[in-house]
Amino acid sequence: MGFARTCSVALVGVEGVVVEVQADLEPGVAAFTLVGLPDKSLVESRDRVRAALVNSGAVWPQKKLTVGLSPASVPKGGSGFDLAVACAVLGAAERIDPRQIADLMMIGELGLDGRVRPVRGVLPAVLAASEAGYQQVVVPEQTAAEAALVPGVSVLGVRSLRQLIAVLTDEPVPEEEQEPFEPGRPDPLLAGLTVPGAGMGTGVTAGPGSGAGGPDLADVAGQRAARGALEVAAAGGHHLFLTGPPGAGKTMLAERLPGLLPPLTRQEALEVTAVHSIAGVLPPGQPLVDTPPYCAPHHSATMAALVGGGNGLPRPGAVSLAHRGVLFLDFSDH
User: Fold this and answer.
1) What is the DSSP secondary-structure string of 64-83?
2) What is the sign of the dihedral through the CA atoms of 113, 119, 123 and 129?
3) What pLDDT is attached to residue 1?
4) Cα separation of 121 and 18, whole Å?
5) Which residues contact 301 (CB under 8 A, 6 or more apart)?
6) Maximum Cα interatomic distance, the chain, rounded to a whole number of Å
7) Cα(183)–Cα(51) distance, rounded to whole angstroms?
8) What residue ranges do the domains of the chain occupy?
9) Which residue, 12, 97, 182, 209, has fewest beta-carbon neighbours within 10 Å?
10) Is the pLDDT of residue 197 over 60?
């Protein structure tokens, strides 16, 4: 009989809930049971984890295996539990020391070949881990910079399950080919969402506002009254109503409003980045959104695209993506 436990995080909206992943091995007919209110994508982790372990050189235990996710009352979904489930199984099989993983927080999806792939929502997950007192987290290497934004947390970024096993067993760490960074694909609910520079379609524009090289009000000639209105709205945090015929410059002015807003504080930047991380629209190479975001949904955007939603884990909509920034709603007929 073997038992091991480690931890991961379940996302509920933009908040994270710490989940204890327990693995128990008992004599009996070889079977793999996953309990704890998992959704369909999480149930499929049984096959991903088994293939990843075998292809990483580990021996799959031929015993009755039960993996429990606690608290069982919290709905859990997504592939981010794969890494924790795999390590809990290895701990129960005594391939690694169970004490080595008991205080680790693990987040990541496993490929069938053992590669560790990035998932959405790493920042809010690590924030939840930090608030719960965890000081060490293991994440995919591609999201290590995002996880490192949380102060007081030691982050280990790994490329494969083989590398993690080597670290936990004090063996030489194998070299793994680095995959090119691929920004997280947006949820089907947000199909058409684009981040400047990420090239993910058209329809909704969401991203940092007035970073270096962004639209600036200094580029606008004339429009004295409209410029004054923008400055008053930015200074007082007011809503703004722009009216006029097509081509009057409404969109041009709205795009430059974030440039008048002050930079986000550290706490505000973490809030905004957490929302964008869950939506999977963080620009590559920019783990922290430190300027006010600008979101301009297309006039044909659905209600779900505006306010968020979806089956299982709700995804942020345009309103949430504009948090601490500017939401531009164009009601023109063209």
Assistant:
1) EEEEEEESTTS-B-SSTTHH
2) negative
3) 63
4) 13
5) 192, 203, 204, 318
6) 80
7) 25
8) 2-168, 188-327
9) 182
10) no
d(CA 126, CA 146): 9
Assign 199 a pLDDT band (cuts: 50, 70, 90).
very low
What is the SS3 assignment for 163?
helix
User: Using one digit for the tens of pLDDT, what is the confidence trace for 55-72?
Assistant: 999 999 999 999 999 999
CB 126 within 8 A of CB 139: yes
CB atoms within 10 A of CB 265: 11
Global pTM reads 0.80
Q: Which of 263, 272, 282 is nearest to 193 (CA)?
A: 282
Rounded mean pLDDT, 76-85: 94
Calculate ∠ Cα 322-238-269, nearest 5°. 35
CA distance 192 to 226: 30
Dist CA 263 CA 261 (whole Å): 7
Burial class for 126, CB neighbours closer than 10 Å (0-12, 13-18, 19+): buried
Q: Which residues pair with 17 in a beta bridge?
A: 10
Q: Return the half-sphere exposure (C-beta side, CA atoms, 13 A cut-off) of residue 48.
A: 25
CATH of domain 2-168: 3.30.230.10
